[in-house]
Amino acid sequence: MKKSNLLGVGILGVIVGLALASSSARADYSFDNDVPADIKAQMIADMQFIGTVQGTTASPLHQQIFGNADGPTYTKFFNDRVQSVGMSDCGMGNAVACVNAGFDSSKMWLTENFIKFSHPQIARIMVMFHESRHTEDNNDNWPHATCPSPFLDPSGNEIKSIWTGYSLAGEPGCDVTPFGSYGSSMIMLKNIQKFCTNCTDKVKMDAGLYADDQFKRIIDSTAVQQITTDLYSN
């Protein structure tokens, strides 16, 4: 009898464990049928990863936008904003993803550019959190600014999309505030690079690389100084 009871407890423990694992793997947002199965699985895995991030601290701008630099904070931020994910050809072939606020501001659309270009996990997460910022109707969905034309870095090189390689000059692919989609997502990644305690060196290196690239899209001098003071001055 004792052996039987122990076996029953053991089986119950396995069942509970599987239920908890299934619950933690379940996304709080839905996917349209046209989202490829591997992309759906990849996105769920990416969000599971970001949910594990642990940070020692967070910069002041990060605290204003997200709060703590940790997994539960990031997960809640995203789940509070994005309710569904679908496929679209938005952005006239140049976009990686988008939010169509006039149609459904809680829905994120992925484009073929999200699928056909290969980028590190932290870069995909950057895109997802970029778009989640665009769902905020109370902030007019954080519209982008038009990039200068020509759009050159300090060395005189043309600034292009790190994701697609497309030219950004004259395109609505810049921001004039640290709090928009480009600013907030790069602040998130830079905090992960600097403060994550359980990230691999590769994750932190990728986070810094993509954060520094997105920083180029902030074209207002005051906003640039705010971010520089927040994350680059020490």
Can you put this structure into words, describing what you see?
There is one protein chain. The protein is about 50% helix and about 5% strand. By secondary structure, the chain is mostly helical. The protein has one domain.
User: What string gives the helices and strands in order?
Assistant: HEHHHEEHEHHHHH
Average predicted local confidence, pLDDT: 89
State the end-to-end CA separation: 66 Å
Total number of helical segments? 10
What is the overall silhouette?
Answer: globular
Q: What amount of the residues lies in strands?
A: 5-15%
Domain count, please report it: 1
Low-pLDDT residue intervals, each spanning 5 or more residues:
1-26
Taking strands numbered 1, 2, ... along the chain, how are they ordered across the largest sheet? 1-2-4-3
Number of E-state strands: 4
Largest sheet data: 4 strands, mixed
Q: Structural class of the helices, strands and pairings?
A: mainly alpha
Q: Helicity, in percent?
A: 40-55%
Radius of gyration: 20 Å
